[in-house]
Amino acid sequence: MLRILCRILFVSGFVLAVVAIALGALLLSPLPVHERHVLFVPAGATLQSVLEQLQSEGAVRAPWVWHLLARVGSRVITLGAHMGSYELSPTTTHAELFNNLLRGRNRLVRRLTIYEGETTTHVAGALARTLDDDSVRVLRLLRSDSLAQAWNLGDDARSVEGFLLPATYELFEREPVEHALGRLVNRFERIWEERFADRARQCRLSRYKILTLASIVEGEVVNPIEYRRVAGVYWNRLNRGMKLEADPTVQYALGFPSRRLTFDDYRVEHPYNTYRIVGLPPGPVKVATTNAIEAVLNPERHDFLFFCGSGDSSGTHRFARTYAEHLANVRRYHQVLRQREQFASARLLR
């Protein structure tokens, strides 16, 4: 009996040794790919789903071994924390790939910076360059109501515009644009819930309208000390049923021309032109900061109804309660501009 037991143990040990050697050889062997390509692992993916993707692309040998490893590994770990893009090349071994997937190592990171006051067109271009996509397609996605509805951004939300905050984001090579946008919007949602949701429920405007007004405030403010004061002006005009007459909405309607706006520009018929319509435009016009959102929810209390640039280097405005005061401020603004232009011309002639 003892001899039989020894033989069984010997055979079992031999089989295990053979399996271990075979598994080691497999893990150290290169992937069966002939050229470099990129594997993108979405958030929440399991080892099993990644394996199925690799198997469908013919990127692994002996799929049954991977199925076994995935089944064991999936009991203790998912790849949700290690989403990203991973390089598959003829020199990548199975062990390297498996280790990278489990630990989130050697991901192909690309960074996207969204700046405060940036236009949606610029954001679409930057996102397209970062993810090797088409800027026209990305812009259509940003302005489409389909994503806004799918992500429950609000009954009146017409697009993803307004739901992207200025920051530097870590994206991944070949990450689908829709997936990346979803992560950017999720970040916005977290910040909104932490900082603004409670106060926003007490506001008579919907969230989308709050973001729309915040984007206008962002477009007007140069010096951060004026966020709350500018927001107060627009609240006063809204409460009185006055047209907002906000330049950023005209610029949006015209595609943000690099020149100064003309009188003809202010007369253009467009749903975003607040010199022609009463109330807020249909949606946000620029990327707003949290400072602008904060200002809309907590504006400065005053009775100003107008403002115009001071014309100097401070980036501040002159505020007025009456139209007559406003016209006087406008004249001062143009006078300061003329003086600056004359000074600049004189320096050039020296």
Describe the structure.
The protein folds into 3 domains: 29-103, 2-Layer Sandwich (Dna Ligase, domain 1), CATH 3.30.1490; 109-198, no CATH class; 210-349, no CATH class. By secondary structure, it is mainly alpha-helical. It is built from 15 helices and 6 strands. 52% of the residues lie in helices and 9% in strands. The protein has helices spanning 2-28, 47-56, 63-73, 94-103, 120-131, 135-143, 145-150, 177-195, 197-200, 207-220, 227-239, 247-253, 263-266, 290-297, 323-349; strands at residues 37-41, 84-88, 109-114, 167-172, 306-309, 317-320. The model is unreliable at 4-20 (pLDDT under 50). The strands form 3 sheets. A two-stranded antiparallel ribbon has the order 1-2.
Briefly summarize what is shown.
The protein is mainly α and 350 residues long.
- Binned strand content: 5-15%
Oligomer: single chain
Number of domains: 3
* SSE-based structural type: mainly alpha
Distance between the termini: 111 Å
Radius of gyration: 29 Å
Topology:
Blueprint: H1 2-28, E1 37-41, H2 47-56, H3 63-73, E2 84-88, H4 94-103, E3 109-114, H5 120-131, H6 135-143, H7 145-150, E4 167-172, H8 177-195, H9 197-200, H10 207-220, H11 227-239, H12 247-253, H13 263-266, H14 290-297, E5 306-309, E6 317-320, H15 323-349
Antiparallel strand pairs: 1-2, 3-4, 5-6
Key words describing this protein structure:
mainly alpha, Dna Ligase, domain 1, 350 residues, two-stranded antiparallel ribbon
